[in-house]
């Protein structure tokens, strides 16, 4: 594998994912732009290239087995491997999400993308990550998935939700299981929270810019070999599970 780092960012056509790709690209990395919509993906790739980033499009729907398998094949063929996977793609599932009113189909859809999608993509990319000298996996979680904060009176944890927030708790739990299984492989695996960021996800009500939201993922993607693994981080430090 060449010295240049190769990354895949899922859901990189807009929002925080786009800025993670831009940030890694600015470091000279070759960045795969994982996105499910052809037009949105190509527009993002062109914009990144115009900004000097070495970006390549990766057709990717994280809920679709065949799409994910094809994405891994494309990356291996195009780039020859993968050093860093940023599992960023995510959905909220919309409203209502109060546990007494939520449609079970909403929960299934959110878990399929936010949790099973991460497992599907991670497992497809693992053979390439195992070949990397400094592999990293970053799972974009959310502090709303922190059970500690959810159960702390007065903590800011967003609206009551039976789908989105629990999907991030689930993702955190799965992240820890990967850490345990892959201990000793050299793969550093961490969860990150971008903070409340102005994107489509929340109707642009967030207070942070997408660039600010991308910062923690870029930090976790570029950890040194003796960096942490099995943690949950935001810009201010560790988030309690
Ligand atoms: N914004 C916040 O305040 C905030 C806070 C905490 C955590 N997060 C997390 O940060 C991550 C990025 O969120 P964001 O705010 O940047 O949201 P966003 O602007 O809505 O972007 C979400 C991205 O995920 C993609 N995506 C959704 N479903 C997908 C699928 N099945 N396959 C492939 N891509 C899919 C979207 O693609 P399309 O354009 O095709 O829909 C889009 O590129 C998410 O995991 C989110 O939960 C965000």
Automatic annotation (TrEMBL):
**Domain of life of the native organism:** Bacteria
Gene3D superfamilies found in the cross-reference section: NAD(P)-binding Rossmann-like Domain (3.40.50.720)
Checking SUPFAM superfamilies in the record gives: NAD(P)-binding Rossmann-fold domains
CDD domains found in the cross-reference section? carb_red_PTCR-like_SDR_c (cd05324)
The entry's keywords = NADP, Oxidoreductase
The family classification in the record reads: Belongs to the short-chain dehydrogenases/reductases (SDR) family.
Protein name, entry field: SDR family oxidoreductase
Q: Which organism is it from?
A: Amycolatopsis acididurans
């Amino acid at each position: 594998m060449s010295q240049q780092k190769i990354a895949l960012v899922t859901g990189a056509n807009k929002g925080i994912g786009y800025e993670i790709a831009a940030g890694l690209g600015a470091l000279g990395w070759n960045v795969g732009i994982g996105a499910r919509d052809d037009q949105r993906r190509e527009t993002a790739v062109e914009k990144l290239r115009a900004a000097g980033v070495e970006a390549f499009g990766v057709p990717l729907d994280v809920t679709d087995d065949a799409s994910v398998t094809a994405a891994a094949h494309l990356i291996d063929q195009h780039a020859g491997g993968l050093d860093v996977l940023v599992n960023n793609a995510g959905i909220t599932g919309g409203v209502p999400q109060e546990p007494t009113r939520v449609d079970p189909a909403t929960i299934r859809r959110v878990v399929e993308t936010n949790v099973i999608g991460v497992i599907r993509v991670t497992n497809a990319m693992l053979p390439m990550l195992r070949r990397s000298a400094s592999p990293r996996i970053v799972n974009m979680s959310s502090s709303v998935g922190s059970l500690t904060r959810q159960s702390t009176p007065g903590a800011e944890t967003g609206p009551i939700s039976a789908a989105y927030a629990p999907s991030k708790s689930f993702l955190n739990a799965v992240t820890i299981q990967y850490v345990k299984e892959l201990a000793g492989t050299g793969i550093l695996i961490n969860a990150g929270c971008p903070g409340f960021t102005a994107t489509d996800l929340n109707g642009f009500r967030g207070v942070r810019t997408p660039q600010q939201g991308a910062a923690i993922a870029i930090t976790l993607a570029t950890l040194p070999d003796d960096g942490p693994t099995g943690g949950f981080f935001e810009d201010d430090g560790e988030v309690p599970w």
